[in-house]
Amino acid sequence: GRSFIAGNDFHSVPVPALLDWSVPVAAGFAYSAYRLAVLAACLLVAAGMFWTIERTRAGAAIRAAAEKPEMVDLLGLDARGVHMLVFGAGTALAMLGGALAAPLYSVYPNMGDGFLIVSFVVVVVGGLGSVAGAFWAALLVGLVDTLAKVFVPVGAGAAIYVLMAAVLLFRPSGLFSAGRA
């Protein structure tokens, strides 16, 4: 589908000129300013999502619509409208993620497939319904993936799936679940 419409071409996107420099971190080692900006943007988005979902009336409506949509309807809110709003917000976040990732990876129609699979692992490890759990699980999955690539390069591709299997075996609701599963 996507390849038929957009083609299979890979495109590179340059790093914005404003952030096309490096920050010295240690002797002989520097880190890309763009990657630091992406990190800051992701932390801001995560904090904003957490604040919105946990501390606002809109977040209460989102949580309620996810748990008991019929109750939300009885309270005079449109649960279907809340679901559509959340879907739209998720789409906007996916677009932001793609735009931030474009200078770091080649752009092509199926570029998000690998991220989608890792995102699924993060949700399973973190636990459904927990934004904070997703944040901490993302850090844990990233750490496990990186350490596996350094210490066990041959089996590194399976490391996050082994982590997910262990979590499902010992804590099926996830490490940081919100008491549901």
Written description of the protein model:
The chain is built from eight helices and two strands, in the order αββααααααα. The protein is mainly alpha-helical. Helix 3 packs across helix 5, helix 6 crosses helix 7 and helix 6 packs parallel to helix 8. Strand 1 and strand 2 form a beta hairpin. It is globular. It folds into two domains: 75 residues; 69 residues. The chain has a two-stranded antiparallel ribbon.
Give the count of helical stretches.
Answer: 8
The best one-word shape is globular
Q: What number of domains?
A: 2
- Beta-strand content estimate: under 5%
Task: Round the Cα radius of gyration to an integer and report it.
Answer: 19 Å
N-to-C order of helices and strands? HEEHHHHHHH
The biggest beta sheet is recorded as: 2 strands, antiparallel
Give the tally of β-strands.
2
How does the helix and strand content classify structurally?
mainly alpha
